[in-house]
Specification:
The chain has about 375 residues and is of the alpha/beta class. It contains 15 helices and five strands. The chain has four domains: about 50 residues, no CATH class; about 70 residues, no CATH class; about 50 residues; about 150 residues, Ribonuclease H-like superfamily/Ribonuclease H (Nucleotidyltransferase, domain 5, 2-Layer Sandwich), CATH 3.30.420.
Length: about 375
């Protein structure tokens, strides 16, 4: 018995079959997408038949049916689209490589990087890589500096002037103190940020193992009275002292400094070509002459021969003072003075060595005494 085939019904869904409801209705959007999927017609054609834009139609499909793209009738067009997408990905990869794998953190930094790289890449790709809108990038380029940026520019000039006045050796803490003395009170972090932006910086000491004073001599050693003394509550309560040396091409130069522990300022100093007791005695005479000590002042030093000499001890006794000395092999008992000398080495001597070093003792002495007077 012959069976008769039943003809399958043809898909007769057309744009006219979609009810003309309000374009904002959810039902209209769903039926428009279903019409696109069922008929298999190109998306632009469906959009024209319905009187809507093709991007809107794509957005409706993505909203209701996910990100699966509609079938394309033109394979060549799909290949061209894939090649263009691959080119965009490669360009953004190259942009990230130039960022060293790290994008700038703030919008200002991103926009500055875009301005620096826009001669090599399109603005669209730079904005996409930096997560910045093109309109925002154009607005930043054409905007006037903010009041904060103008204030930073005005503050950068005195910061640079102070930095140059100290021959490039001061960092943000000391520059802040000097600006405060002039009546300007910016924060230390703000000064550090502006210095970093201008390529300025203080000189930092290198790591080193502290060298202790050779106390192998037969002179009397004073006890370590500084350990039991209270912290100074005013000037001229405790004086600390130490020796240092510089090596100009003319020959060695030795310097002695006495520092007031409360104010951290030099009260006596002396420099000369020999390392003898007269060096520390001259510094002590200067301190006693210009700043007569009150009763109870405590002078502290290391155990070196110049400080343990009879000439130095006699001057201490004549002034009615009791000497304190650091413990053997412990430079940290005189840490404040060691820090002062280390700063002199990096700020004065290190800077001079970068320029070729001191030629004469007089040149080194002028630099050393100028630092001690600060």
């Amino acid at each position: 018995m012959n069976k008769t085939k039943t003809a399958e019904p043809k898909n007769t869904t057309t744009a006219a079959s979609v009810p003309q409801a309000k374009r904002s209705d959810d039902a209209f959007k769903r039926q428009a997408v279903e019409l696109w999927i069922k008929t298999g017609k190109p998306g632009p054609q469906i959009a024209r038949e319905l009187g809507v834009s093709y991007p809107c139609l794509k957005d409706w499909k993505r909203r209701y049916y996910g990100d699966a793209p509609p079938e394309r009738d033109d394979p060549a067009q799909e290949i061209r689209a894939l090649k263009a997408a691959r080119a965009r990905v490669r360009e953004q990869r190259d942009i990230l490589k130039k960022h060293a794998g790290h994008l700038p953190r703030t919008p200002e930094e991103r926009d500055q990087r875009i301005q620096a790289m826009k001669a090599e890449h399109s603005r669209a790709q730079l904005c996409a890589a930096g997560d910045v809108t093109r309109s925002g990038s154009h607005a930043w380029e054409q905007a006037e500096p903010s009041p904060r940026a103008q204030a930073d520019a005005a503050l950068s000039a005195p910061i640079k002037a102070v930095h140059e006045a100290h021959r490039g050796r001061e960092g943000s803490p000391r520059i802040q103190r000097e600006l405060a003395a002039r009546g300007q009170r910016p924060g230390q972090k703000r000064i550090a940020r502006l210095m970093q932006a201008a390529g300025l910086g203080g000189r930092c000491p290198k790591r080193f193992g502290p060298r202790t004073t050779d106390s192998d001599h037969d002179q009397p050693i004073a006890p370590h009275r500084l350990a039991q003394a209270p912290a100074p509550s005013g000037p001229h309560r405790i004086w600390v002292s130490d020796l240092t040396y510089v090596a100009p091409r003319e020959g060695w130069l030795y310097g002695a400094v006495i520092l007031d522990l409360w104010s951290r300022r030099g009260v006596g100093w002396s420099a000369g070509p020999t390392l003898q007791a007269c060096r520390v005695v001259a510094a002590l005479r200067m301190a006693l002459k210009h700043r007569p000590p009150p009763r109870g002042l405590l002078p502290h030093s290391d155990r070196g021969v110049p400080y343990a000499s009879g000439e130095h001890r006699s001057l201490i006794v004549a002034a009615g003072l009791e000497l304190s000395m650091s413990r053997a092999g412990n430079p940290y008992d005189n840490a404040t003075m060691e820090s002062f000398m280390a700063t002199d080495k990096r700020a004065c001597v290190g800077l001079a060595e970068e320029a070729g070093g001191y030629a004469t003792r007089a040149e080194a002495q002028l630099d050393f005494l100028g630092y001690a007077e600060q």
